Structure prediction request, 399 residues.
Amino acid sequence: MKRFVYKAKEQGTGKIIKGTIQAETERIAGKLLVDRGYVPESLKEEGRSFGDRLNRVTAKDRINFTRQFATLVGAGLPIAQSLRTVSEQTQNKTMKAIVEEILAEIEAGHSLGDAFAKHPEVFSNVYLSLVRAGEVSGTLDESLKRIAMQEEKDAKMMSSIKGAMVMPIITLIVIFVVFLYMMLEVVPQVEGLYQDLGEELPALTQAFVEIKNFIVGFWWLALLLGAGIVVGFMQYRRTEHGIRTIAKIKLNVPMFNGLFRMLYMARLARISQILLSTGVAVLDTLQIAGEATNNVIVMDEVKDAMDKVQAGKPMSESLRDHQYILPLVYQMAAIGEQSGKMDEMLGKAAQVFEDDLDAKVAAISSAIEPVMMILLAIMAGGLVGGILFPIYALVNSIA
Prediction:
């Protein structure tokens, strides 16, 4: 799909309109403008700049689009007009271009689900399933609102997890910078004082001098090793083995394993609740919700449950006896099967996991703080023992 810059005259008023439009060819772009009631005066293809490529679509952009689109559709506006209005209000250039492409697809006679499906980098399988379910049932605005609510909850959960890691990362960076400064600026001065006076350096100070010499003499090697490790890890994490290894580490790493397990179960239960409430089949629900967890190990267990469902077993029994699917999920599913309120019960399970996740994040943040304080104390003690004490000892020996 290409993007064209146009200048056109509005029929009836004669008002000059300038903007962009998405279409396969220039001829189709001109036809779309005529269909909108414009008389094209100029039309040319627009090239994408490097800045546009960097202007990626964030979760916030997608949530804002979904909220606005749901409001307009719920107010009774036609889908094409709703998309056009949202496009005019969208600030992100990439998101704006995608909305215009979707609008072009709709005006060409395609369904909304098919139009969204052409942008898998922005709209997930969960998103597409809910849009299609909303189209079929005539409750598109409700489906869009559910999507926005789910994405907001997911964004909030991820934000809380990332927020818990901000302070430790900043503290470690500060420790590294201070240590580097002391090695490169202060240690050489202490070494020079001892050399001038012909005194022997204390063992800890001598260790610091060796570290300083290595940094000064082999900094390029450290950079190459660091860059090699980063590049190697980035390549490894894209391989099948790397993806599975990282997924397993997240589920089993001490302190954080409970955090990630709750996150994945909250996603599994919440997505299942939303999909089932819109009439999506159980097998499709498990497939999409399993993928939404974004962990291949959990997805393997969900696929195993899908095989059991396909063989005729109830969903609750199929989810049982898996290492990483927590008991609350299949327990609430069993209650839902008995009461006929599966979606409602899974929604309650998701709420429990989300609340526990918030509490877990707060607990981890509290636990990390003393660890950081201990690291700072160790560094401060080392610097005092290796730099300040030798200076005081040298002064006292002179006195």
Observations:
- The chain has a mean pLDDT of 84.
